[in-house]
Amino acid sequence: MRNVTLVLSDGTKFHGKSFGYDAPVAGEVVFNTAMMGYPESLTDPSYAGQLLTMTFPLVGNYGVPPFTIEKNGIPTFMESDRIYASAIIVSDYTEEYSHWNGVESLASWLKREHVPGITGIDTRELTKVLREHGVMMGKILFDDEPDNIPEADYEGVNFVDLVSTKEIIHYNEGAGKKVILVDCGVKANIIRSLINRGVEVIRVPWNYDYTGMQYDGLFLANGPGDPDVCNDAVEVIRKQMNMSKKPICGICMGNQLLSKAAGATIYKLKYGHRGHNQPVRMVGTEKCYITSQNHGYAVDATTLGTDWKELFVNMNDGSNEGICHKENPWFTSQFHPEACSGPVDTDFMFDKFVETLK
Question: What is the CATH number of the domain that holds 300?
């Protein structure tokens, strides 16, 4: 293992060893508090451009599952077609794995997909730095290549455009109700959750004008980066809302895009919500759910129009976790109801959406 140094934008340094692909990399350093699920997290397009820090110290012990594709064209155990995170940062990497579904080590997978991985980092201290300062840009540098310094393009980059499909894809054709899925970086289990409920899914690019198509409901998917660079998608959503009252459901980035279409503003969280343990309360009730989340931006609920209201709020910091229209069947969640891996407390969001299709 080669010696590496993680250098944050404020000059803080962490020293470790490389266990993945040997190449320097730069990106936004974020942390995830989940105890498991690194294959799903690494293949979540929402991590595009980011150096993913796992706060759980032991990573790699159950290896990596096979990359198999189901008959419906969806990956069985991954959330997309490849690794989207720019790197993974862990405290203690385990090369020897043991799991009924493991077919290779995390290191071999990272190397094959040309993604750096570093171990031996004090991830608790790193997380404390990020919590106090906020998320920062960082660089993973190899100590024996001091002049090989990467630069990252992050601020203002439209990562949604980089990860979204470039063509229309159909799933479960002829099944019944048709749902337009706006792909901002959709996770495979969102598609699976819809087709398992007996609907046809039409996956379209993030900025595609679907308003002239025949469909019964609109689903706005998750995605990476800053929603303020996705105004094309917002304009199409607003156009659709002005045309009809067809059901609309959004997840994560989808919550932010629908909120923007409703006139709300977005702000960047200090260090984001990433993990499987975020408590969320349904507004107007005492019901609290444990949710899986992965986002760095939030909706300013005070800027919502009078026709809208908050549906969920985060119990840790009071930030918005979903909105709904007071009359029309338009609602969202900032968290991931389909969470794989993660809690399934809020899986009913998909049932609620399918029930509104007429």
Answer: 3.40.50.880
Tell me: is residue 223 an annotated ligand-binding position. yes
Residue 149 included in any domain: no
> Active site includes 15?
no
- 218 and 263 inside one domain: yes
C-alpha to C-alpha distances, 81 to 14, 68, 165, 248, 259, nearest whole angstrom: 31, 10, 11, 26, 29
**47-81 confidence digits (pLDDT tens):** 999 999 999 999 999 999 999 999 999 999 999 99
Q: 252 near 336, Cβ under 8 Å? A: yes
For residue 209, being part of any structural domain is answered with yes
282 is in an annotated binding site: no
Per-residue model confidence as pLDDT tens digits over 277-303: 999 999 999 999 999 999 999 999 999
- Say if residue 253 carries a ligand binding annotation: yes
Q: Give the active site residue among 28, 40, 79, 338.
A: 338
Residue 199 lies in a domain: yes
Task: For residue 252, indicate whether it is catalytic.
Answer: yes
Q: Which of 267, 188, 261, 172 has its CA nearest to residue 222?
A: 188
Are 86 and 182 part of one and the same domain? no
Active-site residue flag, 324? no
Question: One of 184, 249, 252, 324 is an active-site residue; which one?
Answer: 252
Note down the domain range covering 198. Answer: 157-355
The verdict on whether residue 137 carries a ligand-binding annotation is no
